[in-house]
Amino acid sequence: MTKETIKAQVRKAFDHRVSIRVYNDKDIPKEDMDYILDMAWLSPSSIGLEPWRFIVLDRKAISKIATDLKPVSWGAKSQLDTASHFVLLLAEKKVRYDSQAVKDSLYRKELDKEIIASRLLRYEDFQKNHKTMANSDRLLWEWAAKQTYIALANMMTAASFIGIDSCPIEGFQDEPVNAILVKHGLIDPNKEKLASMLALGYRANTPKHKRVRKDRHTVVTWVD
């Protein structure tokens, strides 16, 4: 396979992907969902932290929480009724440089103690002096939440490659939705919080509107 063939396939996947809000009743095979989720699992993150967790809901699981979610999730109403699967993207709350989450991210790389100590000092400097977020729970969570969007984009692209449609969802009320997920035993409110949701399935109809983007030259700038 040539480089040009690969580029054409990638472009085709991007051209196919639009945000689909209503899906047909065809279920995504488990092997295809596993492939999509692998792309999230393998995604890069700042300092290799992987400050995320991905909860996967099939139609049966969606139906158990849809009634609760709809009143506080204006951006997901039709998707909750029709999607084959939902992925809830959670971001960790406690990702300070001296947290167990950060230490665990280094331990799993099997680094020696001196390297770990050196990196923790670097992360402390990064959080205190470069991003000034070390003492803000809100800023720390937002930093973690940003990482989940890398995984979100990779899942959407991977899905489009194999003809599966998707819709990223941020249209929900923060506190009520997280409270519902706690009530249903899906998240630990002390450790994590919902960043976004992803609906997946097969489009019920051809999209009514043509995809539109800003003129390329207005968003891409080359510097000589």
TrEMBL record:
Q: Which InterPro entries match?
A: NfsB-like, Nitroreductase, Nitroreductase-like, Nitroreductase/BluB
What are the protein's UniProt keywords? Flavoprotein, FMN, NAD, NADP, Oxidoreductase
Could you name the domain of life of the organism this protein comes from? Bacteria
UniProt cofactor(s): FMN
SUPFAM superfamilies with a match to the protein in the record: FMN-dependent nitroreductase-like (SSF55469)
The Nitroreductase domain extends over 16-202
Entry's family note: Belongs to the nitroreductase family.
State the name under which the record lists this protein: NAD(P)H-dependent oxidoreductase
What organism is the protein native to?
Streptococcus sciuri
